[in-house]
Design a protein that fits this description.
Rossmann fold, alpha/beta, SDR_fam, 7-stranded parallel beta sheet, Dehydrogenase/reductase, 7 strands
Length: 236
């Protein structure tokens, strides 16, 4: 089997934006390693699924090993996995804090470190994080301290990675969404959530997928936090 096709690892790949990203990369003839806690095996021989907690380094190791052993390389890593718990700051529990750090931060650190080590062998690669525009523009009534703490950290880490690896052929970028129509949000909430955006409506999963695909195909773009948020980060 030729290993000239590009290979992407997608975390949080079982539903929502992650599942749409898997489809989009397969449409572009990438081979895919898809990771999620509850993901099922795929009938597509060009998709390998890894079930497990992305915050666990052993799961991250397994995913990168599968990419290399099955497909011969790692070209792109999409750190899509993330959790959001909206609570007043003083009502977060220690368990909430640990869960959010595990997925949003540990889940980024372990697999990114391992994937970049593989990318260095080919002197090329791309790491992309899905963050949130709440980092830049907090919204009254949407308590988001832990999202800002963790996803804001990923924005900063993205810029730092971009500079550290700029001369090695490895790029780092992020897509910073507004509120997106996905299984995470019940349809009856869409009107109210849409009103939180200057454009007056929520985004579609395709908006995020298109932004990710653009950044993955943009060799002169690195260190970019691309806001796909209906104007939220610009103001009201």
């Amino acid at each position: 089997m030729s290993n000239s096709q590009k290979v992407v690892i997608v975390t949080g790949a079982s539903q929502g934006i992650g599942a749409e990203l898997v489809k989009a990369f397969r449409e572009r003839d990438y081979r895919v390693v898809a990771i999620a806690r509850s993901i099922k095996p795929s009938d597509d021989p060009n998709i390998v699924t890894v079930a497990g907690d992305i915050g666990d380094r052993e799961v991250a190791k397994r995913a990168v090993s599968e990419a290399v052993e099955r497909f011969g390389r790692v070209d792109t890593l999409i750190n899509n996995a993330g959790i959001f718990i909206a609570k007043p700051f003083t009502q977060y529990t220690a368990e909430d804090y640990a869960s959010i750090l595990n997925v949003n931060v540990n889940g980024f650190f372990h697999i990114t470190q391992l994937a970049i080590a593989e990318m260095e062998k080919n002197k090329s690669g791309h790491v992309l994080q899905i963050t949130t525009s709440l980092v830049d523009h907090a919204i009254s009534g949407v308590p988001s301290v832990l999202a800002s703490l963790t996803k804001g950290g990923l924005n900063a880490a993205t810029r730092s990675l971009a500079i550290e690896y700029a001369k090695t052929g490895i790029r780092a970028n992020a897509v910073s969404p507004g509120i997106i129509k996905s299984p995470m949000h019940a349809p009856e909430t869409h009107e109210a959530l849409g009103a939180l955006h200057p454009v007056g409506h929520m985004g579609e999963m395709r908006d995020i997928v298109d932004a990710v695909v653009y950044l993955d195909s943009a060799p002169f773009v690195t260190g970019e936090i691309l806001h796909v948020d209906g104007g939220q980060s610009a103001g009201h």
